[in-house]
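wait is this the right file?? whatever heres the structure
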């Protein structure tokens, strides 16, 4: 499956999940962006971050500015008419001493505060999950951004009705 096909699958699955879980009712903006970033916006974002974007993540942002399925299940990126529907993308030097990571997603599968990261020294390498309640454990999540995005939406389980 090509990256483009995988991203189409990710966005279709995300739209289905949002329609089923009712999360769209909590937002005035689309939970799954219908538009992508322009080349100028991507250059500006890279300038703001002080780092190039990984190739697959850049491809994704050209198709969709962000995806928010639920609290703690989102791929961040760009704003929607000046409003950030997801958390803003950022570069961290706090997750692992001596390393910079691009923090691009919330992943509250195990606990709120868990995040998906890309090592700034290996932009097109694997995606890692930061498990903050496990003493800041960082584990490999997927071998690439596109597979991480696919895994994120396909692992999503809506919260129980009682909490």
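ok assuming it is, sequence goes like this
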């Amino acid at each position: 499956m090509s990256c483009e096909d995988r991203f189409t699958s990710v966005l279709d699955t995300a739209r289905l999940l949002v329609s089923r879980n009712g999360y769209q009712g909590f937002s005035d903006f689309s939970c799954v962006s219908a538009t992508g970033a322009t080349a100028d916006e991507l250059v500006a974002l890279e300038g703001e971050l002080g780092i190039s974007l990984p190739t697959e993540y850049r491809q994704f942002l050209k198709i969709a500015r962000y995806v928010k399925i639920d609290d703690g299940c989102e791929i961040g990126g760009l704003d929607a008419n000046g409003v950030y529907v997801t958390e803003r993308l950022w570069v961290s030097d706090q997750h692992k001493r001596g390393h910079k990571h691009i923090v691009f997603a919330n992943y509250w599968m195990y606990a709120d505060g868990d995040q998906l990261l890309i090592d700034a020294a290996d932009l097109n390498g694997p995606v890692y999950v930061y498990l903050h309640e496990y003493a800041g454990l960082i584990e490999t999540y997927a071998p690439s951004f596109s597979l991480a995005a696919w895994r994120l939406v396909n692992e999503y389980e809506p919260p129980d009705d009682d909490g």
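The first strand starts at residue 67 and ends at 70. so i think its the right one actually
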